[in-house]
Amino acid sequence: MLLSVLLWAASVLDWKSQGVHARPATTTAARRDDAKIDWGSVRCPVENSLETLPTPTYPSEKGMFLVCTELIINATPQEIYHALFDFRAYPTWSSFVRDIALPPEVVRTPEDVRVGLVTRFTTTGIVPLLNTTSVEIVTVMKGAFGDDDVGEKNTSTSPPYLMATWRYDDELHGTASRSEHPSILVDRGDGTTLYTSYETYFTGPGTLLLLPFKQTLQKQYTQQGLDLKAYVEKAK
Ligand SMILES: *[C@@H]1O[C@H](CO)[C@@H](O)[C@H](O)[C@H]1NC(C)=O
Ligand SMILES: *[C@@H]1O[C@H](CO)[C@@H](O)[C@H](O)[C@H]1NC(C)=O
């Protein structure tokens, strides 16, 4: 409780100081240059840590809180990547994401999914008895189709990985809340994949409202990983 108060105070101060400088929203491409990150080596911090993780759109910004899940899936990175971008199929396997609304030009998923695609997710279980909706924009598709630009280091020694990312859009130019959700799929070389999936929530008044739901969000992300594992392993 005390911790929440401290975090809240810290974030309000931080938010105000950002307001003074009134930094314009930098483009993703520009931001990617300042922080080259080896995404294939990103892992969840230890449980209950206050550490957060960088994301592709906001690589050098300090997160306010993080939810993160990591597990080994008995499928290839390509098979999991396919499932992550098969937005139409989510209601058939996910107990968290109940629906993903897509613009009319997106007929087939994952084939018609592109970086910049604007979707509306309907999720359940965050607030009891209510569905929550959020606009999510695809930001990284490092995989079998689409854009390969993830601003990564030249790490020819790291194991190969694929990456699927979307960011939350508050429809207020990020002034209320910014968060982004990367899923990183590291090839373990034996037909299995290390799935690391997280969402970093950045400082903002909207993020403060979400803070009390952190444990619930963590529970839902953990369950989402288990649902995904069950789904792709069953499809094999
Ligand atoms: C939540 O969304 C799902 C899928 O769109 C729908 O079937 C369900 O009735 C909704 N529940 C509530 C409480 O609105
Ligand atoms: C990465 O480094 C290797 C070894 O130095 C080099 O051969 C390769 O061209 C580099 N790749 C890129 C994309 O810069």
Walk me through the structure.
By secondary structure, the chain is of the alpha+beta class. The protein has one domain (45-235): START domain (Alpha-D-Glucose-1,6-Bisphosphate, Chain A, domain 4, 2-Layer Sandwich), CATH 3.30.530.20. It is 29% helix and 27% strand. It is built from six helices and seven strands; from the N terminus they run ααβααββββββαα. It has helices at residues 2-21, 28-34, 77-85, 90-93, 205-210, 214-235, and strands at residues 63-73, 97-101, 118-124, 131-142, 161-169, 178-187, 193-202. Strands 1-7-6-5-4-3-2 form a seven-stranded antiparallel sheet. The protein is globular and about 45 Å long. The structure holds 2-acetamido-2-deoxy-beta-D-glucopyranose (2 copies). The site of one 2-acetamido-2-deoxy-beta-D-glucopyranose has 5 residues, from strand 2 and strand 3. Residues 1-22 form the signal peptide. Keywords: Signal. This is Polyketide cyclase / dehydrase and lipid transport.
Summarize the structure in short.
The protein has a single domain (45-235), classed as Alpha-D-Glucose-1,6-Bisphosphate, Chain A, domain 4. The chain has helices at 2-21, 28-34, 77-85, 90-93, 205-210, 214-235, and strands at residues 63-73, 97-101, 118-124, 131-142, 161-169, 178-187, 193-202. Helices cover 29% and strands 27% of the residues.
Keywords summarizing the entry:
alpha+beta, seven-stranded antiparallel sheet, 6 helices, 236 residues
Describe the oligomeric state of these chains in a short phrase. Answer: single chain
Helix content: 25-40%
The overall pLDDT, averaged over residues, is: 82
Order of helices and strands: HHEHHEEEEEEHH
| Count of runs of 4 or more consecutive helical residues | 6
Radius of gyration using CA atoms only: 17 Å
Named CATH architecture? 2-Layer Sandwich
Bound small molecules, by name, code or SMILES, are: 2-acetamido-2-deoxy-beta-D-glucopyranose
Number of domains: 1
CATH superfamily: START domain
Strands, total number:
7
CATH topology: Alpha-D-Glucose-1,6-Bisphosphate, Chain A, domain 4
Shape: globular
C-alpha end-to-end distance: 45 Å
Strand arrangement across the biggest beta sheet: 1-7-6-5-4-3-2
Q: Could you give a short account of the major beta sheet?
A: 7 strands, antiparallel
Poorly predicted parts: 1-34, 145-154
Signal peptide: 1-22
Keywords: Signal
Protein name: Polyketide cyclase / dehydrase and lipid transport
InterPro entries: PTS_HPr_His_P_site (IPR001020), START-like_dom_sf (IPR023393)
